[in-house]
Specification:
The chain has 504 residues and is an alpha+beta fold. It has twelve helices and 25 strands. Strands 1, 4, 5, 6, 7, 8 and 9 form a seven-stranded mixed beta sheet that branches. A hairpin with a 6-residue loop joins β17 and β18. The longest helix has 14 residues. The two termini are 56 Å apart. 24% of the residues are buried. The C terminus is likely disordered.
């Protein structure tokens, strides 16, 4: 302890007196004691406890600050030091805090030591300075927010994601985006519904953050509502539960739509019959007769609704390609004011026969954007307009010669069952209540889309399936996912096994 002993009033520093306790000659001061006796007799840190407790939540790594606040603090940070000093606030009255600092302890010891340096006036004009070490014992205590999360039945906001369509390709893709970006981490639970998913969040802010992510990856619209749970009239505090209803556009990849004439003209005088190539934050279409591409935003879709002509994949018909003829530049259809044209696809005239009518001699002619991948003898899926019963006002207004007999959608690569059996990779899925988003057939179709579309699988985390061996296909045209594109599916069991191998 450092003691500043100044001479008393009317006493000159040239005089010498004896200490009243030990008799040591000293200069006169107000206590009439030497420094050694002052240190032995007076302890200015006696009001400060040498040990205290800190409540820490392991789930969210926050510390409790009375009366009701939980703060996120790192070890030996300024925020944690402030929490420790507030615990000692009542015992620091009457003294002056000069300095406070952490003393190093083992991170796993559940002990935090703080060194305090304080000053206090022990007599008239005599100031003593002393240091003390306070040890805080860290006690585990779950905060109220984590209590609600662990209860699994508490939520303040719910985001209801819906898509009213027969198949769930867009939903399957959205699920993989959510898993990759981990935007569902704050959700207390995910519930499966008949036409979508419900995400429950402990706060409205987390729900709004999730909504912003949905708007950035899929075209959708939303409505909000709230329900009063309780109200405190004295403090004017209300407790609400918020609901955000999100509806995704019902158009999915490989759907065929018929636009109105006005909307088609506004998109660069594109054809009215279009094929959906991709769904991102807007809808991407291609005209199979001109290779002209167009993008329709979410707002433009909801202003002029155009549902898919064939709502489900059950309407897809298998055809056998009989002949393929590339379209020359002179034969291409040119419209005034046409927009951009796809450089990835190739335009071709194709003659096809339904697979169940092979040998009948009834061939159908069409023009398609799949000219780069189709060859005579290939199997291709498409929509047959000659036998389909379609109830669409815009399609009825079109001239009969403008409606093709067949619109080809995708080439069929090999046998589906063999492809699925030899698939050496897998996807992760959300931990949902009450089943899966789509059926097994729709899910296998989505896996085939990932194999055939490099751009689509670039936004998805693909994991290697350790239970299956990666086999190179016999057919060089068969689309596969290489091992270099796969991630290792690590879990606790895998890590434990690897550590045992290293120790051995």
């Amino acid at each position: 302890m450092d003691v500043d002993l100044t001479p008393g009033d009317g006493l000159s520093s040239s005089h010498v007196i004896l200490c009243c306790l030990c008799g040591t000659p000293i200069e006169p001061n107000t206590t009439n004691m030497c420094v050694a006796c002052v240190r032995n007799k007076i302890d200015i840190t006696e009001s400060i406890p040498k040990q205290s407790n800190l409540q820490h939540c392991k789930s969210c790594d926050r510390y409790f600050q009375p009366p009701t606040q939980w703060l996120l603090c790192q070890l030996e940070s300024r925020e944690l030091l402030a929490v420790c000093l507030r615990k000692l606030k009542s015992s620091l009255t009457g003294v002056r805090l000069v300095d406070a600092a952490f003393l190093w302890t083992e991170p796993h010891s559940k002990r935090i030591k703080v060194k305090l340096t304080i000053q206090r006036e022990i007599a008239s004009g005599a100031i003593a300075e002393q240091s003390a070490v306070v040890e805080f014992v860290v006690q585990n205590q779950m905060c109220s927010d984590c209590h609600r999360v662990e209860a699994k039945d508490f939520w303040k906001a719910v985001v209801q994601v819906r898509q009213r369509t027969a198949h769930k390709k867009t939903f399957l893709y959205l699920e993989q985006l959510i898993i990759k970006h981990e935007v569902h981490a704050a959700a207390t639970r995910v519930k499966q519904e008949s036409d979508g998913l419900d995400f429950f969040f402990p706060t409205k802010a987390e729900a709004v953050k999730f909504l912003n992510f949905l708007q950035s990856v899929v075209p959708c619209k939303y409505k909000t509502s709230q329900r009063l749970i309780s109200q405190d009239f004295q403090n004017n505090v209300c407790n609400y539960k918020h609901t955000i209803a999100v509806e995704i556009v019902p158009v999915c990849k490989d759907n065929v739509v018929c636009l109105s004439r006005n909307l088609a003209n506004s998109l660069g005088n594109v054809g009215q019959l279009l094929v959906c190539l991709k769904v991102s934050n807007c809808l991407h279409f291609i005209d199979p007769w001109t290779l002209q591409i167009a993008e329709v935003s979410s707002n433009a879709y909801w202003r002029s609704l155009f549902p898919p002509l064939f709502p489900g994949n059950k309407s897809l018909v298998e055809f056998i390609v009989m002949d393929v003829e590339e379209v020359t530049e002179d034969e291409k259809l040119r419209r005034s004011g046409a927009g951009s044209v796809s450089s990835v696809h190739s335009l071709a005239n194709v003659w096809v026969v339904r697979s169940n009518e092979l040998g009948s001699g009834r061939q159908l002619f069409t023009r398609t954007h799949l000219g780069r991948v189709l060859h005579p003898g290939d199997t291709v899926r498409g929509y047959d307009f000659t036998t389909a019963n379609i109830n669409n006002d815009e399609l009825v207004k079109m001239k009969p010669e403008s409606v093709p007999d067949v619109v080809l959608i995708r080439k069929v690569y090999g046998d589906r069952s063999r492809r699925h059996a030899s698939r050496g990779w897998k996807l992760r899925q959300l931990d949902k209540e009450a089943g899966s988003v789509a059926t097994d057939v729709e899910y296998i179709g989505f896996l085939e889309d990932l194999e055939e579309d490099v751009e689509l699988r670039g936004n998805v985390n693909i994991y290697r399936d350790s239970s299956k061996a990666v086999v190179e296909p016999d057919d060089p045209e068969l689309p596969v996912i290489r091992v270099a594109e796969m991630l290792e599916d690590l879990n606790l069991e895998t890590l434990d096994n690897n550590s045992m191998v290293e120790d051995g």
